[in-house]
Give the backbone structure.
Amino acid sequence: MSDFFAMGGYAAYVWPSYALFFIVLLIDAVAPLRQRNRILRELQRRVTRQRARKTS
Amino acid sequence: MNPIVLWFHKLGSPPYFYRFAGRCLPWLYASAILFAIIGLYGGLVVAPADYQQGDSFRIMYVHVPCAWMGLFAYAFMAANGFVALVWRIKLSETLAMASAPIGAAFTFITLVTGSLWGQPTWGTWWTWDARLTSELVLLFLYFGVIGLYYSIEDRRQAARAAAFLALVGVVNLPIVHYSVQWWNTLHQGTTVSLLGPSRIDPRMLWPLVLMALATHLYFFASVLARARVELIDLESGKRWVREMLSRQPGVEISDV
């Protein structure tokens, strides 16, 4: 098992490559979810403003 | 009308696309993860070490699929940009702009993992040769498209301007691809070819094919997810968005 993690002496190059691959793609996957929440919050605020204007 | 043409017409309508993409997404994510797991197992465990590069060649299983995706995403963006400019289809504008950040992410991974691979094999992190430089230009083209898109207030005008820039940048794609043939570079030539035999051991090839499949599936998942969100924003005043949102828990915007 430790042989596997040693990567024939190239561990310092192989593992950071794989880590970067997953981190960058994870950020990419989460980005649309965050943006969706932002848009929904923005819409909700706009609607509450419009309602407040109507009732006043 | 031909049923396939009819389906494409329907797909161009944002509410239909939104529902269709929503149904595809879980399958795309799941199959991408499944193929990636098998591909990673094959690449990291099953494939034998390279006779020259030892285990450092395993960087290939993230580097090469990402490099292919950087080019693929650009071609996808440019094709949608072309449709957006000629036929003014809103969905094409959205798809073109959705693929830019994903392509940039893949190109960024390609450059950094290439650097991590270059240090042990060539003895340098970076060199200004044709392949590396044209790949860096690709990243800057993505930045240009994204930057132009966000610097214009009107979303649809912004998308068309950025699509035009994307089309001009297509000239860089053959330069990236053929750079290893046209110039003497430190970067190795093509080993895997769609047409004709690949010069790689089959035990090393199949994990690469699976990783390529996984990154393609992930790309389409991410494009659809981003396009869906962008469409909610673009069409926030429309009835279908209001109706869809009113069915969401915790959102109260039904009576507008």
Summary: The mean pLDDT of chain A is 89. Residues 22 and 31 of chain A are 14 Å apart (CA to CA). The helical segments of chain A are 2-6, 11-55.
